[in-house]
Design a protein that fits this description.
Number of strands: 0
Largest sheet: none
Helix content: over 70%
Number of helices: 9
Strand content: under 5%
Structural class: mainly alpha
Distance between the termini: 58 Å
Radius of gyration: 19 Å
Length: 174
Amino acid sequence: MQKSLHQDICDKIRFSKLYEKYAQSLSNILFYKYGELLNPSDKVQEAFIKLWENCAKIKPETAKSYLYTTANNMMLNEVKHQKVVLKYQQVKPKDYTNESPEFILRKKEFLKRFERVLSQLKEEERAAFLLNKVDGKTHKEVAEILGITKKVAEHRIYAAFNKLKNELEELKRK
């Protein structure tokens, strides 16, 4: 019976379903925690490769944990190796726009300030906030992804939002 459990992950169809279920979410979490500079998508791919290489040793019920731990450890190793400060990817503006130059300048300044404040948040607050506000995850889903209780997830999201509101004039009006 134990051997058939291990074969579940080694089955190509089941493995591809694991990939479909967890790859995007894992990539997003790594991005939120470490930024784009360290190539979180590459680490997700490498984690799945390690899972495939070790599929006979890993039980299906521990596959998710194995993936998240492996990918996170790869990112931590990359951080140590490169000693990189967390950065956020700048979105390249279009070559044309209907927006006034003043509006574009104000928007760029706001984004810089927003990213600065976001980068100053505690890692756990930033991850919970971005999972909720960017990915649209519910408080319960955020809690499950981060391995915390729903109350802790709510606290982190609200704490991050309050810090953003306190630092950014544009958010105080709402």
